[in-house]
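Moderator note: this is an archived Q&A kept for reference. The question asked for a predicted structure of one protein chain; the sequence and the answer are reproduced below.
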Amino acid sequence: MKILKVLNSYCGIGGNRKLWDNIKGIKLEITAVEYKQEIADIYHDFFPNDKIVVADAHQYLLDHFKEFDFIWSSPPCPTHSKARYAMAKSENETFKEKYNQKPIYPDMKLYKEILFLRGYFKGKYCVENVVAWYKPLIVPQEIESHWWWSNFVIQPYKSGKNREHNSCVKVLEKRKGFNLNGYNKIDKALLLRNCVEPEIGKHILTCALGLQRQKPLL
């Protein structure tokens, strides 16, 4: 059985990782990095066999990238988001103050990590973020309203499911396969919305492993 050492960076509660188990012929050794202890604790409850590191994921990647065969990175997306950009451009100053949506610099960790992985990492990698309000500085692949940068071919994917924005916790729990009953003092809706769709997470990992049959270009 092949052992694959995986870094799940900015892991959140693990939406992308939800369906990674039981891939035939592959044993995953996963290190998950999350900055907030309370979120790392939830991840650990769902994936107790993974190694959980509470740290700055950006710095951890720089210090440890050579230890892994596959790296998944999902840097913070709000500063790139179309929705936040639209709110920050609003002329309603009271609204902007209330929701703290003032104009801000885009967080360039996203592009730093893409370039770093492209230049120095010898394994397979995937970097995920939202479709941004600006023209991308490095051309991504777009799948299911997200941008993806990788050094392997991600085959076309359509879930056929309704992915429209929904803030209802129960709907999001069912769709993403997490039950957050018993967890308090957390924004459950935000955590669930931030989860990569589990089916997409599995699709991309199997593409990285070469387990997806290549589809002809139309």
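Archived answer notes: The mean pLDDT is 90.
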